[in-house]
Amino acid sequence: MCSMYYIRRSIKIIMKNNRTFIENRRKKIIEALEQHGSIKVEKLSAELHASPLTIRRDLDYLEQLGLVERFYGGASLRKNPTGQSLGDSDNTMHKHAIAQRAAQFVNDGDTIFINSSSTALLMLKYITAKMVTIITNNGNAVFNHVHDNITIVLTGGELRAPKEAMVGEFALNNLNRVTAVKSFLGCSGLTSEEGFTTAAMHEVAINQLMLSRVTGERYILADYTKIGKKHNFISGSPDQISCIITNTESDKTVMDSLAAQGIKVIQVPPLK
Fold this sequence. Notes:
Blueprint: H1 2-36, E1 38-40, H2 41-48, H3 52-64, E2 68-71, E3 74-77, H4 88-103, E4 111-114, H5 118-121, E5 132-136, E6 150-154, E7 158-160, E8 165-167, H6 169-175, E9 182-186, E10 189-191, E11 195-198, H7 204-212, E12 218-221, E13 233-236, E14 243-247, H8 252-259, E15 264-268
Parallel strand pairs: 4-5, 4-9, 5-6, 9-12, 12-14, 14-15
Antiparallel strand pairs: 1-3, 2-3, 7-8, 10-11, 11-13
């Protein structure tokens, strides 16, 4: 028992150190983009001493967060509605505001689904309800400190970079054995025509199960960089969405169109 404890502790330390290294590299990518506006993968690869494949995965992850915009061979820093560069701290405050509001819909005794979304995972910081069970395919959940009244259940499955999402048949089989009261799902894009979409094909089936195996409300968490944006892979249609939680900066035309379909729309200002 003692040796197993130290093995598990060592694995957690290794994973934490690896995560810190990755986060530092991604921070340097943002800093490079803030300096140059746009940059090629080859240049980032040389400057950061990382393979082009690693840089592409980092850029994919930063695009999922809404911080960068990809183009063939490179990326540029996204702009906010005022035309200013969208830095990490700016968008992070929007995401925290959405997560904080979403957490208010979690009640004592709830079992909820959270997908690989970084915004949805931030809910762990704000849930105050007791005896809550969170079922998630987000591998980053292991790095979060949660209070004793929250139980985290990982779906298991194949761990896919850059989001550390757990996918594949193993994850799907496990999700098919459970139900949840509510789901809180992030997305890569959200439109009134297609619903919510993702840039990651292997996450579609997971998202669809997290919609279908729910007895109550289905919440979509999307900051304003995702509103009106469409990706190739559809995870859920508008009629499957109960509520959208987004920012006050989100495109009003898109939000009005979604509300006209009977979807509850909640818009929150960024945290200060």
